[in-house]
Design brief:
Helix content: 10-25%
Largest sheet: 7 strands, antiparallel
Mean pLDDT: 76
Length: 473
């Protein structure tokens, strides 16, 4: 009985061994059929995880790292270099202007730190100079490649320009300086200009015209002299004194004229500090600027004339203004005019003044002394006879012209600020058309200011009770 049991046990063990061998074979076959796993590429160091560090030429920075350094990578050693003094301390030194990066790795090849290095000029001296000259300004200086950039804010445009000029001078060597300074307060300047011109003319004309005839036997001598006035080109008046004696008629022409011409303009302009403003009261006249041979037409351009003003204010400090002023007074003149074919081009008489100065707000500058004096004298007459003593006066005419012109320009700048619309007034405020009976019977063109039914009446309680406003005659 025991032998049978033993044989059964042996049979079971053999069957189990065969099953186990088959299972191992199937497992090996399954593993052989599995695909080989794909390796993943990883970026262990890049600029995305780098820290920006600015350096000056010949300057260094010391950095302590959180782990021991095993490997160092410097992209461009000619721009910046890294010196490892201990396992966790490193010194980075700027060599020349440019940009590079430096990476540090541990013993396992893992990145400890990365730095994006920008080597620029040493700007500490420039920073100290700007801080000393403008202590109240918030101006930052940074080096960008081979240039310098100014940023921050300044109190005025003049302060920003001063910082730019100082940086350009101290950096030197043709280094480009970019001015990115913002102006906190854009000051505005109003320029009040008074242009006054007075012209005084004196013209004197004296001439004698003779006409008559003499009979000597069968011979008859007729003569007629008419003396011209060449200084002005024409006589002042057609009036004359006539007299005759024994067939001789004499005409005496004697006139004198004195005239005064006054020109006055008061333009007011407002401009932001550092900007340019222009003003013109006058017009434009056409002139031929060229000829197009293709279309056979003349090219016409226009020239401005009148009272013009151009000014550029720069606010330097509280109440101080640097002002560049260009003012011009011009008028059309027949003197110097040019005639081409059937076209006549007028000439211009110009008075021009240009200056740059520093003046306080509310101060005035007078540009005077622009005086022109022109004197003309002309004598016309019959040759030979006009040289006779005493009697020669009857055969000649004399003309005398004296012109004096004086121009004065007064400039007054003011620091101004914007106001509400209700604080301003117009020339037509309170204007009202006169009624028909008032216009026909009394010759009025308008009613008194403030009396229009469409306009509000003056507020009660006002101390001034008389008529007010601008009244047309």
């Amino acid at each position: 009985m025991s032998k049978v049991t033993t044989n059964n046990t042996l049979i079971r063990a053999a069957v189990a061994a065969v099953i186990a061998g088959a299972s191992l074979a199937s497992i090996h076959m399954a593993r052989a059929a599995d695909p080989v796993p794909t390796q993943v590429i990883q970026v262990v160091a890049s600029e995305a995880t780098s820290r920006f560090v600015p350096l000056g030429i010949g300057k260094s920075v010391a950095i302590d790292l959180p782990a021991d350094i095993k490997d160092v990578l410097v992209a461009d050693p000619t721009i910046a270099n890294a010196v490892v003094r201990s396992s966790r301390r490193v010194y980075m030194i700027g060599v020349k202007i440019g940009q590079t990066n430096i990476f540090f790795f541990d013993a396992n090849g893992k990145q400890i730190a990365g730095f994006d290095i920008a080597v620029t000029r040493d700007l500490n001296g420039l920073r100290a100079a700007l801080k000393q000259s403008m202590p109240g300004a918030d101006i930052r200086i940074e080096g960008v490649n081979d240039g310098v950039m100014l940023s921050g804010s300044a109190n005025s445009a003049a302060e920003a320009q001063q910082a730019f000029d100082l940086a350009s001078r101290l950096v030197g060597d043709g280094t480009k300086v970019v001015n990115g300074i913002n102006v906190r307060g854009r000051d505005q300047v109003m320029l009040k200009v008074t242009v006054a011109e007075v012209q005084r003319d004196v013209i004197k004309q004296l001439g004698v015209d003779l006409s008559g005839s003499f009979n000597y036997g069968a011979a008859v001598v007729d003569f007629n002299t008419q003396n011209a006035f060449s200084a002005t080109g024409q006589a002042l008046s057609g009036g004359s004194f006539l007299g005759s004696m024994k067939g001789v008629t004499a005409r005496l022409r004697a006139m004198e004229r004195a005239g005064v011409i006054r020109t006055l303009a008061e333009p007011n302009l407002t401009a932001i500090s550092g900007e340019t403003a222009n003003f013109l009261v006058g017009g434009e006249f056409p002139y031929v600027a060229g000829y197009d041979s293709t279309t056979r037409q003349a090219q016409v351009a226009f020239k401005k004339f009148g009272v013009s003003l151009t000014f550029t204010p720069i606010v330097l400090s509280e109440g101080r203004i640097s002002l560049k002023v260009l003012t011009e007074v011009s008028e059309l003149s027949a003197e110097g005019a040019v005639s081409i074919a059937e076209l006549s081009i007028s000439a211009l008489k110009v008075r021009r003044a240009e200056t740059t100065l520093e003046i306080p707000s509310g101060g005035s500058l007078a540009m005077a002394g622009m005086i022109q004096e022109q004197t003309k004298q002309a004598i016309n007459g019959t040759p030979g006879l006009m040289q006779l003593p005493i009697l020669g006066t009857l055969f000649k005419s004399r003309e005398y012209v004296n012109k004096q012109t004086e121009l004065v320009v007064i400039v007054t700048p003011f620091m101004v600020q914007a106001v509400a619309a209700k604080q301003l007034s117009r020339p037509d405020d309170g204007y009202a058309d006169a009624s028909d009976p008032s216009g026909v019977l009394l010759g009025r063109l308008n009613r008194i200011y403030g009396s229009s039914p469409t306009k509000p009446e003056p507020q009660p309680g006002s101390n001034y009770q008389n008529k007010y406003g601008f009244i047309l005659d």
